[in-house]
Every structure is written in structure tokens, then in C-alpha cells.
């Protein structure tokens, strides 16, 4: 059975993307009589180039064979545990983007900073909490003041 | 020339703009001195603050960050033995040993002086070559510009960590991102029925998402994988001015040579400070009467390293201003600032916006002076700041990225664009796809399509690209850069195989022999 290496996953993902976008180029308005080339040409050229490059990456990866493992294969649970900080940070950022228009800049930013600093710094000592709250409650209003009063940019 | 420069100098010398340059330089030094933060990240964080400014103020602030950032790497390089930026790796080779020998002030002073002189020499190169190249490229027609952009992209892709195929893929992907939304004929492309995609993606959230997320999440992963010992350093540094003047007096040739290398390498797309750093360090060692002293704390090494990486600042402006082609990531962002203010970098900029060009020259010069003063006066503080942990930096920078993206158009959709491209950038980084060609593709995509179709509207034959001498030359150079990159990759692989073969017997159990 073939192993899904990074290169193979990348090449396959690119080929799927090319397939979807190539179908989508059919929805682009065709050229008029006075246009030598239509609006779909440039994206199609790029999709062709990406398809060729992805195929070459795939072929090269298949010819090279799967790299010898230096570490034992991880289960999905182990992988999740290993990458939990990065995944949680992405999730927190998504939540921040979601809450920003609902509860406003100050509340959302304070929430995001406190939660992400707690995630990265830890919450196992008063000192860490003090740093967390000092950074969050200083920076959030400061950035607001700079944008709102200094640069005259409205924040939600 | 003198006329527009004096006008620009008057604008840049106003207290408000001077203050912005000071703030930019300070932030740049701080960004450069924090290991893993980099000049590019400092520029990305400051970028949103320029939205509400006039072009001269915005560009001056960014130039300040640029100048400060390239010199900031020396602080952590000397004090911690960790390069603050990739472009200050070789600074560590001699800066750290000198500090270990009880002379951190001397190492920092030599580095700062070399940075200052490197910046000055690179500004001279920019002032001399910028207008020359711009006036030459005024003759470029759409065929030449198209071919030049293709050449720049292949060159950058070819120089991407030996991953030519992935580099080219990244460049094509970057160009593809720019095809979303209405095109020049008001035809809608790849909107998938979402009205928000009609106007395409803003460059800024795309750039920040791709670069910042991959780097910040990468820093988090490094924290997980490495056992970090929190370094304690003595920040009680004093600068021995007389000794530094004596040191620098003996480094004239080294300073000029390294600065010229930095300026020229900076002017080549896809190279930047790191490459300049290694080349000039290598050349300084080759020309030295005492090559054996390199790596033990010699001033020659620090001068070569710092003069060259700071000279990249001026050199990198040459293709950006003269041709409208950014050479590296910081320059791509700088180009974004100019585009944001309705200015198209390129040969016409010297005619249409001479005062802004002069403001860039003036900001570089003033920034260099401010950089020296700040570094010498506040070196203890920068040494302390360089110890700020990534655990605090990452959330703060992510928040600034989000607010910066929103502030561009007061549009929440841009934060989602930032998030989506953040995920894409992180996944591509995990797949070891170089991100610089991707970002350059995003920056150059619209211009490439516009020039390509202008050429085809003037002459529908594709062969014209090969029959026009300059266009054919650029395309030939593009092919040559791909072939050269393939050759380099083969050579690296052969060396790796040879190294593995040599290492094999030692791995065998003793009885196998």
C-alpha cells in the first residue's frame, strides 16, 4: 500500500484544486468578437502549469519511494495531542474573528489575548496570570486608542 | 535631482515624519533583535498603521522599520549567540565569541558602525543605479515586462531552498490567487456565488495570512520541540567609542566590499540579506591576511556580516522602484504600501512621484543616523527586549494582524481572508513549500496578466515574445535560472549521497567489516 507522504498529499491536493477550478472556468464569460483571448485564458494557463508541476512532484515522490521512518507511526490521537497548541490557537483565532462583530473589538480582543496567552504561557502560577492580564489589559486598549484616536480608524 | 531631493528632505525633516522614522527604527531594531521575529514580521505588523497616513509619512515609517530591522539582528547575535534574523547568522560567528571574551560593547559598536556605513553605501548605489535602470526600462513594452516578471518569479522559485518544483508551484499558486474577482473586462471569475469575492482578495490580508501564520505557528512548534533554557545575560554593556573608531579605521576595504556585495545581492530578486551575509563573510575571509581568526571574535567578520546585511536595505529598493519588481518579502510588502497609497512602483515613479522617491532616499539616510544613535544609546534595553518569550509575542502579533487586516477597509471579510490564507500558508509550510514565490506571485499577478494581454491585444502572436530581443533575453534567463537551479539541486543531492556513503561504514557494527 502506498504511504501518503507530504509531497504526495500536496500534489494530490493541487490536482484536486486544479480539477475544481478548471470546471469553474467554464462559468467565466467567453470572449467577445473583438477580444482575441477571453478572461478564462490566464487562469487556465496557470491551472495547466500547476497541474504539470503537481504531476511532476507526484511522479518524483513515487519514484523516490516513501522515506524511511525514523520515528514510529503516530495514531490520529497522538498527532492531535502533539499539535494541540497550534490547533487550539487556530481555533481561538477563528473564534476571535467570529466574535469581533458580535461583542466588539475590546471584549473580543481581551478574550482572545487572555485565552491565547493562557494557552501558551500556562496558568499554573500567579506570576503567569499577572503577565497575561498585564499584557492583555495594556495592549488591547492601547491599540484601540492608536487606531481610533491617532489614525482615525473605527474598530468594531 | 537635487530639486526633488531637497523637497523630499524638507517633507521628511518635519517633526512628525522624523518621529515616525524614530518609531520605525526603534520597532525595527526590537523586531530584529528578537530571535524568530524577523524584519518581515516587523514590517507586516507596522504596515496597517500606515493606512491613515499620507504616502511620505507611511513610506518613511516603513523605511525606518526596514533600516532598524536589518541592524537589530546584531543584538541577540552578540548577546545571546542566537541570530535575531536569518540575515545576521554570520554576525554570531565573531560577535558572540568577542562578547564571550568580555567585549560585548566592542562587538555591538563595530556591528552598529558597519551597519550604518553599509546603509549609507547602499543608498549611494540606489541613488546612482535606480534612475539609470528606470530610464533604461522606460523602453520596455508589454512583452518585455511580461518576460521580466516571469524571469523574476522563476529566479525566486529557483532559489527557494533547493525546492524548484515547489517554488514554481508556489509562484503559480500566488498568481492564481490574483485571478479571483472581476478582471480587466469586468468578467467575474472564481466567485463561487459569494458576492464578497467579487472584488477579489486584498493583497495585505493574503500576505499577512500566508507569511505571519506560518512563521508564528512554526515558532510555537519550535518551542514544543526544543528544550529552551532561559538564557540569562548581562545587559550592562558600555560602548568603547575610541576602540571602535580604531577598529573601523582598519576595516575600510572590508566595509566597502561587503556593502557593495550587500547592495548588489539585495538588488537581485529572491536573494536578500541571508545570501549577502554569507557571501560577504566568505569573501572577507578569502581576502583576509588572517583567515584563521575568523570565528574566534575578529572585527573583520562582524564588519563583513553587518555591512552586507544592512546594505541589502538600499539595494533591494533598486528593482522595486526602478522596475516595479520586489526582490524579497520585505520589499513585496513595501510595494504593497505604495500600491495601497495609489502609487505604482516602476520606471514611471521617478517621473510621476520624484518627491516620494526622494523621501525614500532621505528616510534611508536619516533612518541610518537614527539607527546608530538608538543602538548606541539604548543597547541595554534592546538586549533585555530580545529576551521577550515567543509565548507572549505570538498572540499579540496575531491580534495586530487581525486588526490591521480589518482596518484596511473596515471590512470583517478581510479577517476571514487572513484566517483562510493563514491556514493555507501553514499547510504549505508544513508541506515544505517555499512561501516567498507565493507572496511575490500575489504581488505581481495583476500586473503580469495586464501586461500579457496588452501584448496580445497589440499582436495576437505568442511568437512576438521570442522575436523581440529583450523579451527573448528575459525568457532565456528564466529558462537558464531553472536549469541552473536543477543543476544546483543535483549537485547538493550528489554531495549528500557522498556524505551518506562516507558515513555508512561508521554506522556498521564492528564485526560487519
Automatic annotation (TrEMBL), chain A:
Transmembrane intervals: 41-59, 80-99, 105-123, 130-151
Domain DUF1468 stretches: 9-156
Record organism: Billgrantia tianxiuensis
Keyword Lyase: no
Keywords per UniProt: Membrane, Transmembrane, Transmembrane helix
Keyword Ribosomal protein: no
Pfam family, one: TctB
Superkingdom in the source lineage: Bacteria
UniProt-recorded name of the protein: Tripartite tricarboxylate transporter TctB family protein
UniProtKB/TrEMBL annotation, chain B:
InterPro entries: DUF112_TM (IPR002823)
UniProt domain DUF112: residue ranges: 18-440
Keywords: Membrane, Transmembrane, Transmembrane helix
Spans traversing the lipid bilayer: 16-47, 59-82, 107-133, 145-177, 197-217, 329-350, 356-379, 391-409, 415-444, 465-487
Protein name in the entry: Tat pathway signal protein
Organism: Billgrantia tianxiuensis
